[in-house]
Amino acid sequence: MTDTDIDPARLEAARKLFVGDVDFVLGVRAMDQIPVASMPEIAFAGRSNVGKSSLLNALTGRKQIARTSNTPGRTREVNFFDVGGKLMLADLPGYGYARAPKTEVLGWTQLIENYLRGRAGLRRVCLLIDSRHGIKETDRSAMGLMDQAAQNYQVVLTKCDKVKPGPLAKLKETISAELAKHGAAHPVILATSSNDGTGIPELRAELASFCD
Ligand code: GDP
């Protein structure tokens, strides 16, 4: 998809929404601390280092909205951001860190299960996949959780500036074939780069469409 496929007015409205007011609401470690869903919500999930913080910063046109992944103690929290009083973004803790102890993996799974169970306003989970690596086993586990919860999710490729157009098209094909087997997966894959801005307007427009 390119910019030209979407009405420019829609792209501009989405840009304004995301680069406008964005406020950190809170970070929670347990779902009983979670704020009541008062707006449509979009969550962002992915392996550690997939480029989630960079994508949230690119979406909102900021240097640092996302609390950095390497801030000690913040990595296991769900961080909520209010976008213009219209949309809530939930930054889920990264998973799949190679040396994570088993207890941590269990903790992540439980947090996400509880989160998916309790979020009536959750419209979509953006499942971030590194363009250089494709879908890994830990991503499949996350997909399994969302399939079980019948939670709509969409693959968003990150760092697509690192992959040439040919291999990127091939990767999309491979992922599409895999997604077709998952009931809760959105069929459209968005390729993004936080470095050069590819796909950011399209992702904004997609997410802004959830504003009531
Ligand atoms: P997180 O752990 O998922 O929050 O990942 P970060 O946003 O901290 O990014 C992890 C690493 O990938 C950092 O070194 C970033 O500079 C790099 N990175 C993130 N997004 C991009 C991108 O779009 N293109 C390239 N080339 N590198 C990226």
Describe the structure.
- The protein is of the alpha/beta class and 212 residues long.
- The chain is 34% helix and 19% strand.
- A hairpin with a 3-residue loop joins β3 (78-83) and β4.
- The radius of gyration is 16 Å and the shape is globular.
- The relative contact order is 0.19.
- Bound molecules: guanosine-5'-diphosphate (GDP).
Name the poorly predicted regions. none
Strand fraction equals: 15-25%
Tally of individual domains: 1
| N to C succession of SSEs | HEEHEEHEHEHEH
* Terminal-residue CA separation: 24 Å
**Radius of gyration from the CA trace?**
16 Å
- Record field, number of beta strands: 7
Short description:
The chain is α/β, with parallel strands linked by helices. It is 34% helix and 19% strand.
Highlighted features:
alpha/beta; 212 residues; 34% helix; Rossmann fold; binds guanosine-5'-diphosphate
Strand-helix topology:
Elements: H1 8-19, E1 22-28, E2 41-46, H2 52-59, E3 78-83, E4 87-91, H3 102-118, E5 122-130, H4 137-148, E6 153-158, H5 165-179, E7 190-191, H6 200-208
Parallel strand pairs: 2-4, 2-5, 5-6, 6-7
Antiparallel strand pairs: 1-3, 3-4
The structure holds guanosine-5'-diphosphate.
